Amino acid sequence: MHVMELPRKVVVGDEIIRDMGNILEELEVGASALIVWGPNVKKIVGDELLESLEKKSFKINWEIVGPSTFQEVERISKLTKKTRASFLIGVGGGRSIDIAKLSSFNSRIPFVSVPTSASHDGISSPFASVKGLNRPYSVVAKPPIAIVADISVISKAPFKLLESGCGDLVSKRTAVRDWELSHGKTGEYFGGYSANLALLSADLVIDNASSISTQDQDAVRVVVEALISAGVAAGIAGSSRPCSGSEHLFSHAMDIVAPGKGMHGEKCGMGSIMMAKLHGLDYIQIRDALSLIGCPIKASEIGATADEVVKALLLARDIRKERYTILNETNLTDETARSLAKDVGLF
Ligand SMILES: [Zn+2]
Question: How many Å lie between the centroid of ligand 1 and the Cα of residue 323?
């Protein structure tokens, strides 16, 4: 049996936060909302969002969330019960959406994703990453029932966030190749449709690299739509496989080896350059596209050292032992890891 979980509605457009009341009414998710967001996001879109919901007579509670930890998910899950919320709205970049996604999963109520930046595919995927679950990678929850992506808000976010989203997207090139490899070697399920959808998202970024670097609204829309499709590809696959391979293992390993250095997508992009070389893919095309966009392609650009990159490369395979990737076929040593990173220009 193969189960696909998909969002019911995706709304992308300019100044659509003010239509949230209408959008939610059409979704028929009940009358009681719990909104989770960070303090800055509340300042930027709060008034407009609250006003739009009030117009439609929703009962509204809102809460400022802290770091994306297991404890925070527990706190919001309890609050969901206390406020008798019939649905959750996660508004923000990463953590608010992750917390809303997992809390809604715990509380068995739907959640609506309202991204205010385009920094990773978690805005639409069924997966969330939080600290405190004893594993550095994403856990399965449910996809948002709806995604409302306001391009006029997202295009005002710092460029660094968009650039990180692009790194997360190009990394689907190696993620899909790892998935195919595993299918051949372990017999793991492989879905051609979701694999192609994820690859299409990577291609969109690579083909539009120079226009993305201008950060104009059309380019931001391309990245946002590509991130949404990548997340949906994971929903179709029923696993994070089309979106997360050896390059994500490298990114997670960097989180441990060099915490706080570089954003998720930036590290995935760098990881993808290296894993593409191991796969015999065109790593130069990936690197050139990232560089053209303005993404870091050297370890020093995220403040990391050569030793940290080598350490992360050696640790990557152990991050998630059951996930078969190119790292299982290449027994990296200190020496070969160092020359891999050096050959592709990481240092
Ligand atoms: Zn990712």
Answer: 15
Condensed to tens digits (0 to 9), the pLDDT of residues 161-198 reads 999 999 999 999 999 999 999 999 999 999 999 999 99
End-to-end CA distance of the chain, in Å? 46
Distance (Å, whole) CA 48 – CA 286: 39
Q: How far is the centre of ligand 1, averaged over its atoms, from the C-alpha of 121 (Å)?
A: 6
SS3 314: helix
Cα–Cα–Cα angle for 190, 196, 197, rounded to 5 degrees: 110
Residue 28 CA to ligand 1 center (angstroms) comes to 31
Q: How far does residue 283's CA lie from ligand 1's centre (Å)? A: 18
Q: List, for residues 9-33, the tens digit of each pLDDT value.
A: 999 999 999 999 999 999 999 999 9
Nearest CA-CA partner of 284 in 160, 170, 159: 170
Question: What does the pLDDT average to over 232-236?
Answer: 95
Rounded Cα–Cα distance for residues 168 and 264 (Å): 7
Residue 44 CA, ligand 1 centroid: distance in Å: 26
Contact, 126 vs 141, CB < 8 A? Answer: yes
Average pLDDT over residues 266-286: 98
Give the whole-angstrom CA distance, residue 87 versus residue 34.
7
Q: 9-154 is classed in which CATH architecture?
A: 3-Layer(aba) Sandwich (3.40)
Residue ranges per domain, the chain?
Answer: 9-154, 159-343
Q: Is the pTM of this model over 0.90?
A: yes
The rounded Å distance from CA 266 to ligand 1 centre is: 10
- 159-343: what fold? Dehydroquinate synthase-like, alpha domain (1.20.1090)
Q: How far is the CA of 57 from the centre of ligand 1 (A)?
A: 37
Centre of ligand 1 from the C-alpha of residue 244, in Å = 6
Residue 86 CA to ligand 1 centre (angstroms): 29
